[in-house]
Amino acid sequence: MWQLREYAAQRSLYRLKEADPHAWVLPRLWGRAKSGMAAVEFDEYGGGRPERVHARLFADLMTDLGLDATYGRSLNAATAEALATVNLISLLGLHRALRGALVGHFAAVEITSAPASRRLAEAMRRTGAGSAAEHFYDEHVEADAVHEQVVRHDVIGGLLAEEPHLAPDVTFGIDVTGHLEDRFADRLLGAWRAGQ
Ligand SMILES: [Fe+2]
Ligand SMILES: [Fe+2]
């Protein structure tokens, strides 16, 4: 349980504003890529229901785990590796020239989310973390199976049909996401294995 709580606190710097940095790319896309991106973001923002906004669901998870869900509360406890994953999204989202990499980042997150969320949902059940804690990850198993298809076919497919020269940028966005996530995982698992 203490490991789940630490993981949630570190992740909260992104999860409590989930989907926001990705929304910056919407005015920088056209056609299929834009409508696909907007469709996925509509789900991330609760599909018109405030209680289902994913950032809200994560705040409820934090409450189940006994954590303070105020944004930025965990900033001083966050590792550099966790902060780097958040900085990356802001950087890619804020620059039009990096729209291809932002799309690559979004794709990497959505495509890897369902299997990872399934394991985290099991961990929440195993530890008796609470129904909101389970629900956040159960919701992502279901939603991201659909998001994966939309991101692959409409967002990446649409963007590269429109702007094929952005293919290396999309690849960069995917690679840098994997690189920073691996670094974060190594730091966290390394500390836990060392009993810290
Ligand atoms: Fe989400
Ligand atoms: Fe998603």
Account of the protein in words:
The protein has 196 residues and is an all-alpha fold. The protein has a single domain (2-193), classed as Heme Oxygenase, Chain A (Up-down Bundle), CATH 1.20.910.10. Helices cover 74% and strands 0% of the residues. It has eight helices and no strands. The longest helix is centred in the C-terminal third of the chain and has 32 residues, at 131-162. The model has no long low-confidence stretch (mean pLDDT 97). One fe (ii) ion is lined by residues 18, 44, 54, 140.
Observed structural traits:
globular; Heme Oxygenase, Chain A; 196 residues; mainly alpha; 8 helices; 74% helix
Quick take:
The protein has 196 residues and is an all-alpha fold. The chain is built from eight helices and no strands.
CA-based shape: globular
Q: Please give the CATH class.
A: Mainly Alpha
Q: Give the number of helices.
A: 8
CATH topology: Heme Oxygenase, Chain A
**Mean pLDDT across all amino acids:** 97
Class from helix and strand fractions: mainly alpha
Q: Which hetero ligands occur in this complex?
A: fe (ii) ion
CATH architecture: Up-down Bundle
**Radius of gyration based on Cα positions:** 17 Å
* CATH superfamily (homologous) name: Heme oxygenase-like
